[in-house]
Each structure stands twice: as C-alpha cells, then as structure tokens.
C-alpha cells in the first residue's frame, strides 16, 4: 500500500474521540437497560385478593395503600377457598385471609418469588399486633431451586439463543430457505436442551418436560425467525435492530426476576408484548400452574412467530425479484452486444 493510499485510509477512519464517545454511549445504554428496572422495582397495581367481611377488607386496603401507595390492586373474595382458586388460576399473586381466629397470608413463590417475599414481610402488620398471620405458599417453587434462581438466570440464554441462531445462520448458510429450516430445527433442539438443564439438572421447572420445551421452542423460534426476516429485508441493520430490541428491551423488562407489575410503569406491559417476557410468563404458567394464565403469552409468541415467518417470506420474494431483474439485465446486455463470427 502506497503512502497516499494509507493517508486516504487513515482519513476515512473516525477520530478516536468519536469512537470513545460511541463506546461510552453504548455502555451507558446497557447500564440503564439492565440496572434501571432492578433499581426501580416495587409493587405497582399488583393483583391481590382479600377474603373477609367488607369492612375488614376496606380496612386492609387502606392499610396497604398507606404502606405502599398504588402498590396493590385489591380483589375481594368470599372465603379462603376462593382466595386459593384465585392464586392457582393466576388471577392474583397472593391473598390475605381475614379470619379473626386464624389470619393467613397466601403466597405463590412459583408465580414470583419477589412478590411472595414482599407479602411475607408485610404479613406481620396486616392482621394487627394481637394476631400473627400464618404464611402459606400455595404454589411453591421446586425444592431444588427454592429461590427460582435458575429460571431467572435462564432469561438471558433464551434471548441469546434466538439472536445467535439468526446471526450464525446469516453468516454460514447462503440459501434463505435453509436458514429458516435451520432456525426451526435449532429452536426445537435448543429448547429440548435448555428444558432438560432447567428441569432435570437444576430442578427449576416442574410439570411436563415436553410442554416446557415447547414453550421455550416458541420463544427461540419467534426471536430467530424475526431477526432472520429483518436481516433478509434490511441487511445487517435489520439484524442489529432486532437484536437490540430483544436484548435491551425484551430481556430487562421480561419480569422473570420479579414480576411485570413490579417494573417501572408501562415497561412491564411492554415487556410482556416481547418474546422474552411472554416466554417467562408462559413457562411459569405451564410448569407450575397447569397452564393457567398462559393464553395471552402464547398469543404474543404466536404473533411474533407469524411475524418472523412473514418477514422471511417477504425476504424470499424480494430476493427472487432481484435475481429476476439481474437475469433480465444480463439477457438485455447479451442481446444488445454485437455478434461476431
């Protein structure tokens, strides 16, 4: 390379100050995305059932509002049995049974360990100084993982699995149809592997193994196919945009480490509309609650899966159109060129 070419190449490179500024911005965004939801985690309209006389229910509601303004959304139920059903159906995260003789707080650590911990800590002041309520975990986490650490830590690999699948397939596989087949195949094999680790090794999941693996496969397939379609249509920019959305929005706001209602207002709802949040809720429902409350997350995952397939289909049609235009241009040049004998 000549001195002049080296000088031109050097001028094309961005100044060091620009690179440092960009890296600082990226680092700041990463910190905000992952630390902000955790630092601002607290109950926000958290569904909670209260069983007891109307006057007592109103008194407890007032006490909770005073202790945590806007923290709980109270639903009055008839008795303890109704409260248990509401917890098991995932209509509420817990319940307070206002029995003068045996006050009780019902939790469901499988539905959200952080919420169960909050209710347990608040139990001492819910029934007054003369009656210490009993705390009952209606739907507990597995004994091998009583804190739910395995499922919470599994949020990142679930997202990375879909992103890595799309990134590697675009680099290593040329044909678009084979990329789609590869993404679907990886979603199945990857889900079987992750579900096996979480259920049989770590003991973080319960229920039917294949049902749990099916939920994970939906998530990996939805993410990888969506990113493949974006890359097909928009190139590397589309892949980067999709990956950033899943990593910086989907993962921190999935609610897997706490609950969607404990995230900053509005962000928990957004997280449930993205595959990482939907798979977390669906996996808890299928593994611990016999599928209760899984309808909406399954719908979200199905929509993302359909979106990914649609984007891939549009990418294939666009590719065919471009190949057809290229072939017509070649034929036109061949017809226009003089024929020599």
TrEMBL record:
- Determine if Transmembrane helix is one of this entry's keywords: yes
Keywords, alphabetical: Membrane, Transmembrane, Transmembrane helix
Entry superkingdom? Bacteria
Parts of the chain that traverse the membrane? 16-39, 149-169, 181-203, 209-228, 233-253, 298-317
Record protein name field: ABC transporter permease
- Organism equals Kribbella sancticallisti
